Amino acid sequence: MQVNLKMSAEQPSTLNITPEMLAQAKAKALAAQDDHPEGDTIRRQVEFYFSDENLPTDLHLLQQCGGRKNIPVSISRICGFKKMRSYKPKSLVVAALRKSAFLEVSTDGKTIKRKVPLQGKTLLDEDFWKEEDDIAFDPRTRKPAVYPVPLQLQQKNVYPEGTSKNMQKPTGFEETYVEAPITPAEAEEEDRMYDEDKPFTERIELAIQRFKQKRRMHEMYSKVFNKLMRYGGVESGPRMYQGLSQTEMKEMDAEEIARATAVHKVPWDREDEKQWAVDFVEVGSAFLSSWYPAYYGQAPGGIKTACQVLRSLYNYLRYHRVCPEYDDQLQAALKMCDIAERELIKVDAAGLALPGDFNTSASTLFGGAHAGLFAGDKSWAKEAEKVGVNVSEMGLREQEARIKFNTGVAALGTDEQQDLIGAPSLQIIKNGSTGLEVTAIILPDDTTREVYAVQSETVRSKLGHLEPLGKLVCKVWHADDCDEWDLPKDRYPYGGPHKLDESREFELWVEERVLTECFVGMKMDACIITLEGNITILDEVKQAYCSFYTWLPNELWMDNKPKEVRWLAKGLPDYEEDVEMNGVKKDGQDKIQEDDEFDDE
């Protein structure tokens, strides 16, 4: 059967062939070939590389294959040799090398080696040239090898995910980084830039830009640095007319380059001492203890990075004598960074561990924050367990909570408190929130350990091992914040409501495991329940803070986005109503322009 196909006049006479289609067709055509068009030349060249004439004296290739070890060499590296670069594609080069009777290609086509390993000595052997003493040569033409000759890796370096080779270079934020020595010319130049007669705002603005030029600002460092600048009252943003050619920059000195390329700037109003104060310690402490954990968390890696950025900046300011009048502050700020790197990680662990099993048990029994959380005996909880949701770990059974509470009172309580164990109910005398600062940590003594050892044997089948209690001694602490209270100053000198006695000291009973996470000076925002018999319960810990916790109004500045000032014509003496373009007003109605020269009506 014959079918006549006829192209209509409306159809185009040319075919729409894209470059992608051509590339795919070419690739299929090459794949169908089993040899490179210049396969013989490729085989001769590569066989010469591995031949007995060339290989013993080819130090570079010997470092790849190991000489007599006959280690497979990467074909990609062979294709990078000068005489092999013109042979493409690589797939056909591999196909051509597979036909060699002298060489062997791996099954995956990535490496190549000799079928018969090399015999005899090579440049890798120290006595190689001793056997060639009878050959005349110019000693200047031979470069002696350094023995033992190291072999080169055949695989590429594998970098961590999200990084590249350039990101492995020193950034200037390493712990062991040391500032490079300053030449006399540089010292003279910096003396002019950081002259003490200049205002501090001008010097610090130059130093910030110079610091950025000397550091590799990867994303994690740039994020912390920019937030620190914003927190410290330094604004940032693109400046006008910053496009500079290399020729223009060669004619500038260091100060002019820093000013021309600066992104961060210190506004002129920062010189007002009534509104702004220079305090490296307070700003650094508040940034690390209050703002940074609230927005970026307390992961150990992030905390270490943040502390190292501040530490690097302070060291730079001291080394280059940017502000010698604040050198004492910079020294104190460096010590603060060391403390922050230790405490911020411990604070996170302590906040997760507190309040401990004893205080959780007491809170469950006396209507605290943990009361009524246990739902393991509910019917819906059993249905949830069938699908893999275990809710029995949330909260405590009342029986389990009573055993742990009574054991703790029996081990650490006074005689009066121990007499209350058998009481049907205990009354709550006080219940309130307050800030606490740890003043002492007392680990369990031998007597307490013996009591808990005996009790653990009794309830081991039901509750497992009971942890002995120690003591966490705290005093009342007030945190400064931005909350405003309309309260009498004579009754509330700190401005906010504090229901608990400010001069009181609390002795809290906490498990030894939890005490190891705490440290003297740690601060907490907690809820305290006081039972009859003066039994103090740590009901809930809302937030744990480091010893140098500081809050500054700068945190309000971080979220400040001032609106752009717009000068409106309305209300001015010579006010005339403006007309929108194309005769359209803001409300969308058309306005006839009477003075339009193209209006024929």
UniProtKB/TrEMBL annotation:
<feature type="domain" description="HTH La-type RNA-binding">
    <location>
        <begin position="32"/>
        <end position="122"/>
    </location>
</feature>
<dbReference type="InterPro" id="IPR036390">
    <property type="entry name" value="WH_DNA-bd_sf"/>
</dbReference>
<feature type="region of interest" description="Disordered">
    <location>
        <begin position="579"/>
        <end position="601"/>
    </location>
</feature>
<dbReference type="GO" id="GO:0033167">
    <property type="term" value="C:ARC complex"/>
</dbReference>
<dbReference type="InterPro" id="IPR018606">
    <property type="entry name" value="Arb1"/>
</dbReference>
<dbReference type="Pfam" id="PF09692">
    <property type="entry name" value="Arb1"/>
</dbReference>
<dbReference type="InterPro" id="IPR036388">
    <property type="entry name" value="WH-like_DNA-bd_sf"/>
</dbReference>
<dbReference type="GO" id="GO:0003729">
    <property type="term" value="F:mRNA binding"/>
</dbReference>
<keyword id="KW-0694">RNA-binding</keyword>
<dbReference type="Pfam" id="PF05383">
    <property type="entry name" value="La"/>
</dbReference>
<protein>
    <recommendedName>
        <fullName>HTH La-type RNA-binding domain-containing protein</fullName>
    </recommendedName>
</protein>
<dbReference type="GO" id="GO:0031047">
    <property type="term" value="P:regulatory ncRNA-mediated gene silencing"/>
</dbReference>
<dbReference type="InterPro" id="IPR045180">
    <property type="entry name" value="La_dom_prot"/>
</dbReference>
<feature type="compositionally biased region" description="Basic and acidic residues">
    <location>
        <begin position="583"/>
        <end position="592"/>
    </location>
</feature>
<dbReference type="InterPro" id="IPR006630">
    <property type="entry name" value="La_HTH"/>
</dbReference>
